[in-house]
Structure formats: C-alpha cells, structure tokens
Write a structure and sequence with these properties.
single chain, 168 residues, mainly alpha, Four Helix Bundle (Hemerythrin (Met), subunit A), two-stranded antiparallel sheet, 6 helices, globular
Length: 168
Amino acid sequence: MLFALVATVFSATTVRAQGNDQLIADWTRARAYTKAYLDAMPEDGYGLKPKPEMRSFAGQMLHIADGNYFLIGTITGKPGPLKDSAEKLITPTKEATTKAVLDSYDYVINLLKTLTPAQMAAKGKVEGAEITGLQSFDKAFEHQTHHRGQTTVYLRLKGVTPPGEMLF
C-alpha cells in the first residue's frame, strides 16, 4: 500500500514536472518568436500606429510585457520588477522596448523553473476569475500570442515580411 502511494505521488510529480518542462520550452520558443518580431521592425517603425486610436508597435509589445507581469505576478504572488505599466514607463525605442519585453519573458520562464506542482495547481483570483497557476500561465501565453499576432500588420505596413511561424 505504501509503495502504491509513493509510486502515485512520484508519478504525479513527474508528470507535472514534465508539464513545466513543456511550458518552459513553449515560453522559450515564444520569447524567441517575439524577439524575431522585435528585431524585424526597423527603429522608425516602433511608433507606428495603423490608426490613431490603436497602440503603436512598441505599445503592443510593451502591452505583452504588462500582461506577462500582471497575469503571472497576480497568481504567483511574485510581482514583476516594474512599479507601473511598461507602456507608461518604458521609452518606446527599439532598444528599450526589446529589453523590457524580453525581460518579461525571462521573468515568466524563471518562475516556471521554480514552481512546484502544488503551486501550479493552487487557485487564486485574477480579474475576478478563480483559476489555477497553470491556467494563469495558459492565459498569459494566449495573451502574448494574440498581441504578437496583431503586430504582423504593423510589420506589413512598414514593408517588412514578418518572421516565419515558429511552432516547434
């Protein structure tokens, strides 16, 4: 009986650790893909707004950083390093935007490396919804994918071919 219990706990822990490994791999790939977008946009395109009421290219990318810090910091209780929104604090240059955005991916990836299965399963509230740590990482991933995808139009408007898809 004790053996069965130990085997079950070990098995569940191994599955969750492998799940974190896959999340780390996915977030690392997403970081590289986002960097390819940041690198592709010329410096003079960082202020580009397709319409006046839309975010600039830099604004879209800094919004990704804000989402990474907010969604992950809220659920883990480990806030990111910024005292306010990246969109408000960071100068929208290519260099500053790239650093801020990549730092936000590093924050997510480094947290994933430290979280236990119990922490990933623990529930918390984000924007009034009760979700697990794992769900928060999934929502943050969805958010960054959505906003990076929007910047494809910005690149096209500058005459730049967007980076090819990086599914693997």
